[in-house]
Amino acid sequence: MRLVLAVIVCKILRFIGGLLGRGSSLPGQFALKVCPDVLGRVKLPENVIAVTGSNGKTSTVEMIAAILNASGKKVVYNKEGSNQIEGVTTLILSNCSLGGRMRGDVLLLESDERYARHTFRWFHPTHFVITNLYRDQLTRNGHPEWVYDAIKPAVFPETTLVLNADDPLVSCFARDHDPAKVKWFGLDECSVSTKEHHGVYHDGARCPVCKARMEYSCYHYAHIGHYACPSCGHRRHGTDFTVTALDLKEGTLTINGETGLSLAFKSIYNVYNILAAWSVCALAGADRETMAGVINNYMLKNGRMVTFTLGKHRGTLLTSKHENSVAYDTNLAYIAATDRPCTVLVIVDAISRKYFTGETSWLWDIDFDRLSAPHIQKVMLYGRYCNDLAVRFKYSHVPADKIEVGESIATAAEYLKDNGDEDLFVITCFSDRDKLLAHVERNG
Amino acid sequence: MELTILHLYPDCMSLYGEYANVMVLRRHLEATGVSVTVETALFEDTPDFERAGFIYMGAGAERTQKAALAALLPHKEAFQAAVDRGAVVLFTGNAMEALGASVTDAAGKVWPALGLADFTTVETDKRTPEDVVAHTALWESAAVGFMNKCSTTKGVNAPLFDRLSLGFGNEDEKGPEGYVSGNVFATHLTGPILVKNPDFTDLLIRRLFAAKGWELPEKLPVLPYEREAYEVTLKELTGRAGG
Ligand SMILES: [Zn+2]
Questions:
Q1: Do A358 and B236 touch (CB under 8 A)?
Q2: Which of A39, A169, A187, B60 fits as disulfide partner to A243, beta carbons 3.0 to 4.6 Å?
Q3: Looking at residue B200, what is its pLDDT?
Q4: CA torsion angle for B127, B129, B130, B132 (degrees, to 10)?
């Protein structure tokens, strides 16, 4: 009876919330009050797929949804990114009959690293995709191993783990799991691989199991690559789903030596997102042709990139999450790979839109040396924390005479409007981007 | 004037950009006319404490910190000897815990530490990531920064900071924080705290000069943007702490 009541409460609040344009966690929150174990009582679809990791969750989930939909499955997933237990409850109950049976063939969840254990206490995913663990929002997350320890209690014996073999920390999830219930994805050594590690810090320097020095035969990026610990034997596992060839310049890749794909967005991170989606969709029964068809025609909703005009400048805003050096490094690499003369504007004004902090140590994890490329004529450092940025750049290879520092974003916009016609790249976070976009003409 | 900085375990005890502390101190020393050599030691190495004028270790993941303790313990005597002859030591984040008697992990296992001081640390499964404003009698301005710890430390008889107006101290909210004894400085503040706090950097330089018997210039160099960055953070954090 409480189950029925919880479903009704959720549906009514969801309806009212929809009218008011409100967020999606409140209905679930009330439903959980009415029936705390409601998630344990509903009848879920045959496939319950969860995706977690530091970067790429949302993109991976959207690609999985697109592929499985094209395979004729009805997929229910948390589009709104409300990935804590209340949001998941809203999602599930909104799609339930009054009898507590969920509609759809697949429940697909983007799962917050820190909250997965609360959600999965009540039901266990059939497939759990873990993409990567890096330094991300450490003011909330502590550090990657802390996140690993937070996810671990959400891993249950009957769940099939779909793991990134190239990430030494993610690979540890398989250590006490039934090997028959672990599927691996990864990249062969290929055109992007290097013998040397790149980046300001190296979180793969030590074996996550025994802390001996890890040995790598190649790196794909950051600490992702082919590793083996000479001390305890923790090493990259052979893969079930493999990118066997990759040409990032051309934007092509080959999976399992047989399927050629083209990339909508030519980045190594996108390659991993595709591979993760491919792996779990194949396990859920999607066929090769359908998967390839969807990926080849995939229009990446790239909300992170906005083009605009400011004075005579052709501008591109690259949204980077503050407190996430990997996101920054991606965008810096993108700019470094362009070849026309340009100015780069970096803005750090509010560090987070969700919480207050003055923490700027993450600036030291970003590889700003990438901005020393000769075609980058000027680097403008703006926002409340412009001085922190300026100090950081003093320890980069960017020449001092290319750097300009100021607090007011409006002043920077005004200056650019009246001066110069070179390309302009703006790097900032969701929390700060509108402060610049207010001064420009957006394209498209 | 020549000085060797010994940076312990930079490959893994630098979780929040702590490597920057060594870079900033080095640059300040060079601007003061000191010729600086930075030596690093990994777990597998025997650290050269004999030559070190300044010894630094930053924060690591809890399991990495245990490995650092195990690596450092066999060199306890050499470390103590360096401290006795006046080497300046700075251990930040959970590296601070290494100076005490022991660290007990969240599972209850007790790990012996260097024992330079009597304090003991207990880890929990809760984290305290907080902005910090801290006050000390050793320099005039308030210190600013961030902590990201999961432990409490009991039995510190000489804290580095007498009180906090923001943040979690050794044992409790806003309580005394860190540890200081002679030229040994420790705090659970993480990240590049010397970048953030030029007055702390200056204090360390004064101690280094005194230990070496060098004559201190009348004014220590001020490097661009550091003071301004400090002022902005202080203003933001005190605004939040309610003055
Ligand atoms: Zn190992």
A1: yes
A2: A187
A3: 98
A4: 100
Q: Quick check: A372 pLDDT over 70?
A: yes
Question: What percentage of chain B reaches a pLDDT higher than 70?
Answer: 99
Domain A305-442 bears CATH identifier 3.90.190.20: yes
Structure tokens at B228: 């301004």
Interior angle at CA B23, CA B21 and CA B27, nearest 5: 115
Distance from C-alpha of A56 to C-alpha of A37, rounded to nearest angstrom? 30
Q: pLDDT value at position A300?
A: 65
Question: Model confidence over B196-220: pLDDT tens digits?
Answer: 999 999 999 999 999 999 999 999 9
Neighbour tally for A349: CB within 10 Å: 20
Lookup result for tokens 């209340």: A86
pTM: 0.95
Q: Which domain holds residue B85?
A: 2-241
Residues of chain B in contact with residue A146, where contact means CB-CB under 8 angstroms, are 61-62, 127, 150
Total structural domains within chain B: 1
Cα of A222 to nearest chain B Cα, Å = 14
Mean pLDDT computed over B115-130: 96
Taking residues B144-151, report their average pLDDT: 96
Contact A361 B17 (CB under 8 A): yes
The rounded distance, in Å, linking the Cα atoms of B96 and B188 is: 6
Q: Are A47 and A104 in contact (CB under 8 A)?
A: no
Contacts of A212 in chain B (CB under 8 A): 43
Cβ neighbours around A320 below 10 Å, total? 25
Cα separation of B75 and B43, whole Å? 11
CA–CA dist A28, A123 (Å, integer): 16
β-bridge partners, A318: A305, A427
Q: How far is CA B163 from CA A361, B131, B135, B201, in A?
A: 23, 14, 6, 20
Superfamily of domain A43-89+98-295: Mur-like, catalytic domain (3.40.1190.10)
Cβ atoms < 10 Å from Cβ of A153: 12
What per-residue confidence (pLDDT) applies to A107? 96
Task: Tell me the two tokens of residue A31.
Answer: 């439903």
- Average pLDDT of span A263-270: 87
Residue A30 has pLDDT above 60, yes or no: yes
Q: Could you give the CA distance from residue B94 to residue B74 in angstroms, rounded to a whole number?
A: 19
How close, in Å, is residue A143 to chain B by CA atoms? Answer: 7
CATH number of the domain encompassing residue B201 = 3.40.50.880
Confidence of residue B243 (pLDDT cuts 50, 70, 90): very low
